[in-house]
Design goal:
Elements (H helix, E strand, L loop, with lengths): L1 H7 L4 H12 L5 H13 L2 H29 L1 H21 L4 H13 L4 H8 L6 H14 L1 H17 L2 H21 L1 H5 L16 H28 L5 H20 L8 H16 L6 H13 L1 H13 L4 H33 L2 H20 L27
Length: about 400
């Protein structure tokens, strides 16, 4: 823990972590809130899965584009515009009664305009710490973001079940606006400028590491999305059990991330950590309707989540030039969001056809491929034992604006 405390004492680090976590807190609430709201309004998990899938597809399309735009137009301009549009769409979902196709259209707008805070902050990190501290910082970030998934599902479930499902979505909109403004006001957002990339859009995907981490992120988050839908389907929307189980799952991820944050990353690290995710998820199928069994197995699964994400972040950072990092993280985010879309949609249909266990079949299958793919292609992953995870320097100096 001493190493993490040292990192947090670096100028600006604690502030930017807190600001971006607040801005991204709705990520842990919105999907579950929309799932509960659509299912209540239209009485179908398949409909809810379609709306979530549409939102995730919108986020997937916008991720690389808005991330690249930050290099051309500046972080604050892109983040401000997307914040206004996205919050308006989320408010519409909460306040306006709509049929499923219209809900899907509004959800698509919300997804397309999602502020690219995650690529922004992970592009800022290399400018805040020295190269030795960067890999632990990525691990700390991956672990700290589990606060989003610990608090988010519990709050969303409690508000949706005890007040109204629309109130849960309104809370998401409020947190998006408050957190977004705080992040935009952080000095680091204006001080660090992403240089305009000289490569064509999408060329960064030719990097084997970027492509591999994008695929694995797709599988990992697809599995997680199916688990989320499955847990809600098991315990319904009349009590807090689903939120508590998802929080326990995230606590496992938080513990795993902090415990493994300083472990050197090898070409086999991602496969090993994804195997832990698969074991816990697959074992949950045995007694999927038992609260404590499901909680314990997802706790085991969670231990691999943040560590796997930390490997993905560090691998991408160490494999591309600084000017390409935002777009690279955008593509990784796109892979994850497409995974969320497909995972939640397939899980919704299988729940309607086979009951909640169908969602866990999907989750275990995706997690299994998430362990197999990085094992087969381990040569495409960097060996960071004995070296830092900093990005490859650009030939031109990075312009820095005065604070």
């Amino acid at each position: 823990m001493a190493g993490y405390i040292e990192i947090l004492r670096m100028p600006g680090v604690a502030r930017i972590i807190a600001a971006q976590l607040t801005a991204r807190l709705p990520a842990g609430m919105l999907s579950l809130s929309v799932l509960l709201h659509v299912e209540r309004v239209h009485g179908s998990y398949a409909a809810a899965g379609l709306v979530l899938a549409t939102m995730s597809i919108g986020q997937a399309v916008s991720g690389p584009l808005t991330s690249r735009w930050m290099g051309a137009w500046g972080m604050r301009r892109v983040l401000s515009l997307t914040l206004v549009v996205c919050s308006s769409a989320v408010l519409t979902l909460a306040l306006v009664p709509l049929p499923v196709p219209a809900m899907m259209a509004v959800a698509l707008v919300a997804g397309l305009s999602t502020p690219p805070i995650q690529p922004a902050v992970r592009t800022i990190y290399p400018k805040l710490v020295n190269s030795r501290q960067l890999t632990p910082l990525f691990a700390l970030d991956a672990s700290a973001q589990e606060i989003i998934w610990v608090a988010g599902p519990v709050v969303a479930t409690l508000v949706a079940t005890q007040i109204a499902t629309s109130a849960a979505i309104l809370l998401c909109a409020a947190m998006l606006i408050i957190g977004g403004i705080w992040f935009l006001s952080s000095p680091e957002v204006g001080r660090v400028r992403i240089p305009r990339s000289k490569r064509r859009f999408g060329v960064v995907l030719r990097k084997p590491t970027v492509l591999l981490t994008t695929v694995v992120g797709f599988l990992l988050v697809g599995s997680c999305a199916a688990v989320e839908v499955g847990v809600v389907a098991v315990f319904g929307h009349d009590g807090p059990q689903a939120g508590f189980i998802l929080a326990i799952w995230s606590i496992g991820s938080l513990v795993g991330g902090l415990a493994l944050g300083h472990v050197p990353i090898s070409p086999w690290s991602l496969a090993r950590r994804m195997t832990v995710v698969f074991i816990g998820t697959a074992a949950a199928i045995i007694m999927v309707d038992e609260f404590w069994w499901l909680s314990i197995m997802l706790l085991v699964s969670g231990i691999g989540l943040a560590p796997a994400l930390a490997v993905i972040f560090a691998s991408v950072s160490s494999s591309v030039k600084f000017s390409d990092t935002a777009e690279a993280y955008g593509w990784v985010g796109t892979g994850q969001l497409i995974g969320a879309a497909i995972g939640s949609a397939i899980a919704g249909f299988l729940i309607d056809a086979n009951g909640p266990i169908g969602a866990f079949w999907v989750a275990a299958g995706l997690a299994a491929f998430g362990a197999i793919v990085p094992a087969v292609f381990h040569r495409a992953q960097p060996d960071l034992r004995g070296r830092d995870a900093g990005p490859i320097p650009d030939t031109e100096p990075v312009p820095v604006q005065p604070s």
